[in-house]
Amino acid sequence: MSVFLASLSAPPLLFFFLGAAAVAVRSDLQIPAQIAKFLSLYLLFAIGFKGGVALSESTFDASIVLTLVAMIVLSAVVPIYTFFILRQRLPIADAAAIAATYGSVSAVTFVTATGYLDVQGISWSGYMVACMALMESPAIVVGILLFNHFGRKDGATGTPVSMGHLLKESVSNGSVFLILGSMLIGWVTGTDGMVQIKPLVKDLFLGLLCLFLLDMGIVAAQRLRDFQQAGERRPSGQTFRVMVAAALLLPVMNATLGLGIASLLGLPEGNALLVMVLAASASYIAVPAAMRLALPEANPATYLTMSLAITFPLNLLIGIPVYHAAIRWLL
Amino acid sequence: MSVFLASLSAPPLLFFFLGAAAVAVRSDLQIPAQIAKFLSLYLLFAIGFKGGVALSESTFDASIVLTLVAMIVLSAVVPIYTFFILRQRLPIADAAAIAATYGSVSAVTFVTATGYLDVQGISWSGYMVACMALMESPAIVVGILLFNHFGRKDGATGTPVSMGHLLKESVSNGSVFLILGSMLIGWVTGTDGMVQIKPLVKDLFLGLLCLFLLDMGIVAAQRLRDFQQAGERRPSGQTFRVMVAAALLLPVMNATLGLGIASLLGLPEGNALLVMVLAASASYIAVPAAMRLALPEANPATYLTMSLAITFPLNLLIGIPVYHAAIRWLL
Amino acid sequence: MSVFLASLSAPPLLFFFLGAAAVAVRSDLQIPAQIAKFLSLYLLFAIGFKGGVALSESTFDASIVLTLVAMIVLSAVVPIYTFFILRQRLPIADAAAIAATYGSVSAVTFVTATGYLDVQGISWSGYMVACMALMESPAIVVGILLFNHFGRKDGATGTPVSMGHLLKESVSNGSVFLILGSMLIGWVTGTDGMVQIKPLVKDLFLGLLCLFLLDMGIVAAQRLRDFQQAGERRPSGQTFRVMVAAALLLPVMNATLGLGIASLLGLPEGNALLVMVLAASASYIAVPAAMRLALPEANPATYLTMSLAITFPLNLLIGIPVYHAAIRWLL
Amino acid sequence: MKACKRIEIVIEKSMVPKLTALVKQLGLDGYTLVPDVRGSGDRGMRRADELSGESSNCLIIIACDDQAKVEALLEGVRPLLVRAGGVCLVSDAHWLRH
Amino acid sequence: MKACKRIEIVIEKSMVPKLTALVKQLGLDGYTLVPDVRGSGDRGMRRADELSGESSNCLIIIACDDQAKVEALLEGVRPLLVRAGGVCLVSDAHWLRH
Amino acid sequence: MKACKRIEIVIEKSMVPKLTALVKQLGLDGYTLVPDVRGSGDRGMRRADELSGESSNCLIIIACDDQAKVEALLEGVRPLLVRAGGVCLVSDAHWLRH
Ligand SMILES: Nc1ncnc2c1ncn2[C@@H]1O[C@H](COP(=O)(O)O)[C@@H](O)[C@H]1O
Ligand SMILES: Nc1ncnc2c1ncn2[C@@H]1O[C@H](COP(=O)(O)O)[C@@H](O)[C@H]1O
Ligand SMILES: Nc1ncnc2c1ncn2[C@@H]1O[C@H](COP(=O)(O)O)[C@@H](O)[C@H]1O
Ligand code: NA
Ligand code: NA
Ligand code: NA
Q1: How far is CA E66 from each of CA E91, E94, F8, rounded to the nearest angstrom?
Q2: φ, ψ for residue F38 (rounded to 5)?
Q3: Which of residues 19-48 of E touch A (CB under 8 A)?
Q4: pLDDT exceeds cutoff 50 at B16
């Protein structure tokens, strides 16, 4: 519980609340769009570089490979059962898009979790960042495959997107590319490099995270409010109940799977938490962007609202401390 | 005098001069709009958080309440006499808008004054930030009330805005909300929170203030130059003289009232200076934005030019050191 | 060689590579336009201020004047021979624009070189920054003069721009103004000023340089790729060969002249490198902007592609360490 | 393709909420908004450089194929233009129905 | 001045590459793109505030004096609008030839 | 509502001061400027990503109800387009007088 309060009273989370509150009182507070975009690039750049430097200092061992493989497999498996759970209750395109969304990860949730660990002085490994980056894309591919196989038949509009194209997309995706690239550079330049840019990537990290989460709070709350007026896109009440239920339960299920993997691999506390967070989090940038291209039949008012406006805050505010407590209790 | 030169030779002020000089030589130097917006949000965020942390460390006493009340009352009284001084000489809508503008405060002038105090190693209290935030809005309400009461009769266009709406506006105003919110978070997280984001809110403060004042210098000078071509909006020569006189004298009058309050309450040097600065400064963001909505009859080429292009530089460059000298001399 | 690798493995350069790689794999990675603009303003502000403070600490001697004069003369001479070399092989307007481009300097190349020196702990003098600023504009004037004299006759469209106007332009040019202004302020406020804003101008310098070069890598590579589709603007194969040859050889020639000047003036290692870099670098902001106005007949697909997409990376990646090696070897 | 009116309004940023509320209230299909455009007119230069937004314009484009609603919209827009300035242009267009 | 059609398309950011590819493939002279515009329509508010770009529109303006190409363009645009929403307006204009 | 011409010009950023000066000199009522728009045309892609502004376009909209001034404007615009490229479209519109 104390852990829980500790996390809730960290500035970054409080600024997320503040952003949401701004929307609640209909304040005109807004972060300029290009600034928000830049802050998210900064976070990917910083976490990537930090991870790379950490990697350059750590000795390479099998558990790294095991973790990477396990998590990538997880990110490919999650969409499958998610899809089959939801296909009865939702339009098939939406089911596929949600599946992809939850198989993938939220970089910011991960970043916040690393900040949470740093503040508590719990160590975590640099390769977890690679893990995060590598988990962004596989789910996209799986989601599309599922839709092409089960969905196309009932006459969906538009031509299916080629897999080759999809795979290209997923490596060249801007955020994945920036994380992996920064990580590579951090790994190459190691501590010398870190000395040069530490003031930017380390010292400013939590402060800029606050400002970014302030924006996230605004955007997420805004989205929940607009949801009422989603026009023809607005999901039915029935669909809505399914959405909320899924957005609340999927993270818990996936986090549990993550916990299982962590205990199987006997990961240390910090990595275990990050594994759970990666499993539990859902993408709200890379995957939705890919879905709009590859699966425009799917309704973003469904999958994006779920990941951005429900699952993201859930993991951020309750998930991280609860997963941490679970690890302390079980592992 | 030394104090005066000391303040003039501080980087932030010199960058304000540089911005004005850029316009004078018709340089194409410009700060991108979204960056300027972000810098102003940053300043509110940082000053709010600092104030909150300071508050969490200070012991609460009656003088805090007294100061808050006194200053809020001041911000409601200033518009009244300002209005009656100006209503003879200016269109009634302009008189009301100017009244609101000068009753309210300029966050950046306040922020610059705190920087001035920090550099000189003079302490000031966190609750002064709350004071600043709470002084932003009351003047708006008073200004509108004055106009509705004395102005509407002579058939002004448009429907008067409801008070309830105005009050809502003033609490939900973006900058007020961000200052109070950041302050609350700073107060809750206290020194632990400060440790986490100090590099952003403290270390970068003066540097980013320089960049923001560079932009302010450009915008203010630009505005003075455009004033010549304000088209049909351009105030008459007579009006112009009244404007300039008011923009130069009101700060002095109000600063004097501030000095009075400071000596009555026996405030320490730092707080006394901030009280004078708050009294003397005029709003060029929150109030003009509110006036465009609630009092579109008023001409921004009048009130905004006064506060932004005359009173703001006056306080920044001459006011702060002069007020400080007055305090040293009298208190 | 070790020096060479050392420089290549510095984070800023690696991020330039990363940006280029992003374009190569057709990633959608992009830095928002206003952020890129701001980062470039920051670099000018920081280098200017640092230079000014350094100047305020250094004792003034004749070698300063000599260097300034020598470099300004160089920046006026380079365009002349460049023009006569190219006028046979390229449209006369392009020859003049390229001449101006290579006579002027690239602030970012200079800034990167200072970073390179700082990391290696090699000292350099603040007045070199003034040198850089003063070298931005003369070449523009010379280039236009050349065109007006040799070009106008063969009926070029548009009216020639007055010299007075050009000179005004060149002092009031945004970047020149910001560098000189920041330098002046740094010089006035000296170490006291530096203490106040060091976290911004010094600590963050290399980190923000990384982000800026990431953008430069994207833009430069993008430009090379678009070059294929430059439409009617696309230079002929013959022209293209001349362009590439000139973009590769001019820096070497000019760097050699710089080396000559450095040895004549007996400059210390750090300044010598900066002199070579200034001579070798070509403008891709100030000059192209001026050329579009004064010499619209010239094709930016020629001169801008040369300086931005060929000469800039050449100096950045190979030039700096090679010039450094040459200095160590010869001086 | 269906004949329609293309209504283009340039108005001060601060008036936009009033305008979009009007569009909604009239039950129009939608609108497109280009934020922070600059300009010059009777009230002088507008550089979109004020933090208060006072000097920022917005460009709003509205396609409408219902003449009655067009009239209503224009009636509602006029007072806004009177209070805050700006321009409103109406032209004929064809709407690609999908 | 040459008579031409002015085609104005508001479409979701993610669809823009498809659209510009189409313009190129049809050999049209060119296009102008205003990025990150906001709006509202059948699919609700679009605030251009999503990092995924999902809520950002782009405004594309295309001048074309070849009726056949105009037809072809509209044919190609329709499916995009069906999939991702948006509007496409066509009007008459005169093109100042230089 | 008053009949007028709607003049729409897409031109390189660097030419804008010349254009606005022309508008002023001709005594036109005003103009609206959308900064940093992208595009593609005879001179290839323009991504609005150059710090020099070389690849940025601006979109300028001018409403004018005085035919003589329209002619004069077009005459003044043509040389700019010749030197720096771009497009200029003229169409009929109605101006809501306030
Ligand atoms: N004749 C015009 N053509 C295009 N835009 C205009 C015109 N007149 C005014 N505007 C736009 O409307 C805004 C306000 O106009 P005004 O109220 O006349 O100052 C200006 O800043 C321009 O953006
Ligand atoms: N009637 C309209 N007039 C102008 N723009 C519209 C209109 N309807 C839709 N739009 C634009 O097209 C986008 C998508 O429309 P929709 O697919 O109807 O949600 C909206 O966000 C608006 O920017
Ligand atoms: N046919 C067209 N329709 C719309 N905009 C165009 C067209 N052709 C050119 N443009 C715009 O004008 C700019 C310059 O055109 P150009 O001089 O042909 O390269 C382009 O970058 C586009 O923004
Ligand atoms: Na996940
Ligand atoms: Na005041
Ligand atoms: Na040079």
Answers
A1: 14, 13, 20
A2: -100, 180
A3: 36, 41-45, 47-48
A4: yes
Q: What is the DSSP letter of C104?
A: S
End-to-end C-alpha distance for chain A, whole angstroms: 18
* Cα four-point dihedral sign F50, F55, F61, F67: positive
Q: Mind giving me the DSSP string for A175-189?
A: HHHHHHHHHHHHHHH
Higher pLDDT, E31 or B1: E31
Give me the residues of chain A with pLDDT under 50, please: 1, 155-157
| Window from A284-288, B184-188, B272-276, C179-183 with minimum mean pLDDT | A284-288
Note whether C276 and C124 are within 8 A (CB): no
Provide the pLDDT for residue C6. Answer: 67
Q: Say how far apart CA C266 and CA C275 lie, in whole Å.
A: 12
Q: Which of D40, D42, D45 to mutate to test the pocket of ligand 1 (most atoms within 8 A of CB)?
A: D40
**For residue C156, what pLDDT is reported?**
46
Side-chain half-sphere of F21: how many Cα atoms within 13 Å? 6
- How many angstroms separate the CA atoms of C122 and C95, rounded? 37
Q: For residues D56 and D12, is the Cβ–Cβ distance under 8 A?
A: yes
Q: In whole angstroms, what is the distance from residue B170 CA to residue A94 CA?
A: 42
Q: Which residues pair with D4 in a beta bridge?
A: D93
Q: How many residues does chain C have?
A: 331
Beta strands in F1-98 (DSSP E): 2-12, 31-41, 44-46, 57-64, 87-95
Residue C72, Cα to own-chain centre: how many angstroms? 14
> Stretch C253-278: mean pLDDT, rounded?
97
Place of tokens 């439409």: C231
Please state, in angstroms and rounded to a whole number, the distance separating the CA atoms of residues B136 and B139: 7
Q: Report, as an integer, the average pLDDT of B209-222.
A: 96
> Given a cut of 70, is residue B3 above it in pLDDT?
no
Nearest Cα residue to B111 out of B250, B278, B263: B278
pTM attached to this predicted model: 0.95
User: Is E31 touching F (CB cutoff 8 A)?
Assistant: yes
Binding pocket residue ranges, ligand 3, CB within 6 Å: E 29-32, 61-63; F 10, 39-43, 46, 57, 85-87
Say whether residue A158 is in contact with chain E using an 8 A CB cutoff: yes
Alpha helices by DSSP H, chain E: 16-25, 67-84
Q: What is the mean pLDDT of chain B?
A: 91
Ligand nearest to the CA of F87: 3
pLDDT digits (tens, 9 = 90+) for D50-80: 888 889 999 999 999 999 999 999 999 999 9
Q: Is D67 on the interface with E (CB under 8 A)?
A: no
Three-state DSSP class for residue B170: helix
B211: which chain C residues are within 8 Å (Cβ-Cβ)?
A: 41-42, 45
CA distances from B209 to A228, B11, B206, F21 (A): 41, 9, 5, 35
Q: B282, B313 in Cβ contact below 8 A? A: no
| Backbone dihedral angles phi then psi of residue B88, each to the nearest 5 degrees | -70, -40
Phi/psi of residue B264, each to 5°? -60, -45
Reported confidence tier of residue B156, pLDDT bands at 50, 70, 90: very low
Segment C159-163 shows an average pLDDT of: 65
A289, E53 contact by CB (below 8 A): yes
Query: What count of residues does chain D have?
Result: 98
Question: pLDDT tens digits for C80-96?
Answer: 999 999 999 999 999 99
Would you say A106 and A40 are in contact if contact means Cβ atoms under 8 Å apart? no
- Say whether F42 and C231 touch across the interface (CB within 8 A): yes
As a whole number of angstroms, the longest Cα–Cα distance in chain D is 42
**Four-residue CA torsion sign, A311, A317, A320, A322:** negative
Rg of chain A over CA atoms, in angstroms? Answer: 19
Query: Count of residues for chain B?
Result: 331
Q: Residue B154, class by beta-carbon neighbours within 10 Å (0-12 exposed, 13-18 middle, 19+ buried)? A: exposed
* B-C C-beta contacts closer than 8 Å: 76
